[in-house]
Specification:
Helices cover 39% and strands 14% of the residues. The chain has six helices and five strands.
């Protein structure tokens, strides 16, 4: 058996600490299957938020998503949003952090958020349909 790096052993979290972190990570993130299943079930209370710019949104977005970039998240802009809903943000994939920025701003205004980290590329990779236009 190969020798394990000392760095891995030194930095390993204790089980309880790892469980807390991973539970929080699961509470804050969603994957393509969860988003697709919730959408197909027409689950009330989930709002998909495309955090990319308006031009990218018009080119292609997940059906039913609203377009809201971080720069547009203000108390006035989201005043009519449902505080009981869960806002699932996505953007252009793992190399994009627009969904993180938008989710952070929404959370700061008191909204429940999750981030769909695979974004539109993962959605399209699975062959799920997209919409075009504003």
């Amino acid at each position: 058996m190969p020798q394990v790096s000392a760095r891995i052993l030194e930095n390993a979290a204790q089980p309880a600490e790892a469980q807390r972190y991973l539970a929080l990570k699961l509470a804050l993130e969603s994957n393509v299957a969860e988003v697709y299943d919730a959408q197909q079930a027409k689950e009330a209370g989930m709002v998909l938020v495309d955090a990319r710019n308006a031009e990218s949104f018009a080119e292609a977005h997940i059906p039913g998503a609203i377009n809201l970039s971080a720069k547009d998240v203000t108390a006035a802009a989201v005043a009519s949003f449902d505080k009981n809903a869960v806002y699932v943000t996505y953007c252009g994939g793992p190399a994009c952090n627009a969904s993180t920025k938008t989710a952070e701003k929404l959370a700061g205004l008191g909204f429940k958020v999750k981030e769909f980290s695979g974004g539109l590329p993962k959605w399209q990779e699975k062959g799920y349909s997209v919409q075009t236009g504003a």
